[in-house]
Amino acid sequence: MQQSVSRQDFDRWMVPAYSPASFIPDRAEGSRLWDENGKEYIDFAGGIAVNALGHAHPDLQQALQQQAAKLWHTGNGYTNAPILRLAKQLIDATFADRVFFCNSGAEANEAALKLARKYAHEQSGAEKSGIVAFNNAFHGRTLFTVTAGGQPAYSKDFAPLPPAIDHAIFNDLDSAARLINAQTAAVIVEPIQGEGGVVPADPAFLRGLRALCDCHNALLIFDEVQSGVGRTGALYAYMHYGVTPDILSTAKALGGGFPIGAILTTEKLAATLNVGSHGTTYGGNPLAGAVGGKVLELINRPEVLEGVQLRHRWFTDGLNAINQRLRLFKEVRGLGLLIGAVLNEDFSGRAKQISLAAAEEGVMVLIAGANVVRFAPSLIISEQEVKEGLARFERACEALIKGAS
Known about the structure:
Elements: H1 7-13, E1 25-29, E2 32-35, E3 40-43, H2 46-49, H3 58-68, H4 81-93, E4 98-102, H5 105-124, E5 130-134, H6 143-148, H7 152-155, E6 165-168, H8 173-177, E7 184-189, E8 192-193, E9 199-200, H9 203-216, E10 219-223, H10 237-241, E11 247-250, E12 261-265, H11 267-270, H12 286-299, H13 302-326, E13 329-335, E14 338-343, H14 351-361, E15 363-364, E16 366-367, E17 372-375, H15 383-404
Binding site for pyridoxal 5'-phosphate: 105-106, 138, 223-226, 281
Subunit structure: Homodimer.
EC number: 2.6.1.11, 2.6.1.17
């Protein structure tokens, strides 16, 4: 008999690194979720852009169950058929010649940065080790990636931090140009800053970074952990922008809810990570490979990718209509189904309150800093669910405004 648990047990038993919602999700299907008391929620959070095909997709269930009946894990002393097939799918669909698999976005970015430094050292010597990143970025919570992230609130308590990492202003090419030089090994950038406020890069900015990297023999790394696997309406955002990186990190939606991450890169660069130079126990396991392969097969279709743009309009039209009535946001921005509603000055700092009020009304949303409400739903969410979820969201906003008046 299973032990009954409550939200209060989190506060008694868990390391207090999170402050989870007051309810405990119990089951979910598609874009709807139910808590332990049977209350229904429409999911606009998507597990932080992870559940790209919603919850409990039957084809993903089947892929997982079939693989679970065959082979779960062997370690990296062996390879397996599902992960090899997924590697080939990614190669065929992108610029990449080679793939390295891990378990998360942080691990993927860690591998990308390690590859960039090792390549620079081998090609040019140890003095070429600089990393240029951007303010308000987010690349993960390892010591290397949290330092690259450029949000001191996440890194200052863990000093001393890895050296030779500088931060420019996002979407400011002149700021980046002042930092990128002959000692720069790599530039790491999100095509859309997710945690930093859902801020899309200007196309000219990414083109300029590509040119600067080429000029100074530095590698360009795109962190597509949040923007990848269909989120922008292209399989990866670099395709939307027409700028090709040297290394791309991917995770989140690649597993549709099953933990997996990867870096994609070229034949030339991949040779740098020779045997023994990097590794992971769970990375590239058969279960992740089977689920990831099915996710990619289902998402990398014209009707799904084109449908993301349609759903973008459903959300932005709906949010703008809410704003016409309530005057809550100063901007609705983003690409595809990564959307941010930026609060105006009257409600500055209250994104978390809105997300809590939304949950009370039966809709799950995210925040991206204190001033941005973020939406990252399933790429195949229905129009009816969008309308119903936005109606619930509007009620939450009305309750907040009423409470503030």
